[in-house]
Amino acid sequence: MTAPSAVPMPDFEARLREVLRSKVEFIELIGEDLVAAGGKRVRPAITSLASKVLGGGEAHPADTDLAVCVELLHSASLLHDDLIDDSDTRRGRETAFRKFGNVVSVMSGDFMLSRLLVLLSDMPQSLTRAFGLAASAVCEGEVLQFQVAAYGDYSLDNYLQVIYGKTAAVFELAACAPALRRGAPPETEAALSTYGREYGLAFQMQDDLLDLMGDEATIGKPVGGDLREGKATLPVLYLLEGESGDEVRGILERRAAEPGDVMRVRELVSAQGIYERTRAEIVRRAHLAIAALHQLPPSPDRDRLEAYAAHEAQRVR
Question: What are the record keywords, sorted (predicted)?
């Protein structure tokens, strides 16, 4: 299935570039890299579409700034995440900390968060609280991931908390923020929150599956990165439940999986039906996201939100 077409956001890129302007050249260059590299802009697109669903297809003047806020939170987390993961590239470009150093990269991420606060100051207070909670969840998810690996405390509950914080919290925020800004009824806010949360979980589960089972030429990086770092993603958790559990736990706890270890785990995932089981959970989460949208009035914009989740249900690369 092809990816959903890009959502028209005519003022978004220009506004994002304007908000990221700085008198400090290094901050300006990092901001320009993020704007120029683009990315899929899934999160601001969700915000834009959700707002139009609530507005009967009409955009609101504040939609652009709200979408920029979502992208700023996401981009700041990427700058920090690249440093944490010691990544060489992001969106096909050298990561900021490789190019400018750790301090510049971290402080540029913090600059984005400060610009986010400035934009939120002109919006309803409920949005400040929602962004704060989402940012807290991102931090907790990242730290919990390291804690789980340190203690060997591998469980489905911990995994779901990690990927909620790392990914789904911002998806949830992107979807429900327009409801908060418009003062929508609680049931509408809840429907959009569920959509974003379940879609975000499906999105991260699929990325984790690709990290282990994908093709290096397709995903653009060596497979098995999570395994080598001692991170137990969903297919690995399923393996830990079975007869190969002790073997797989030993690979995880070494936190230095060799290529042969990665191939062994890939073989086990294929042989034991774990790939299909993981895909079934991804599809289930995507369908929960779509079902939540059915509580909202039908519209072309709702259809486009559904298409994003439906694509996740069928994405295999």
Answer: Magnesium, Metal-binding, Transferase
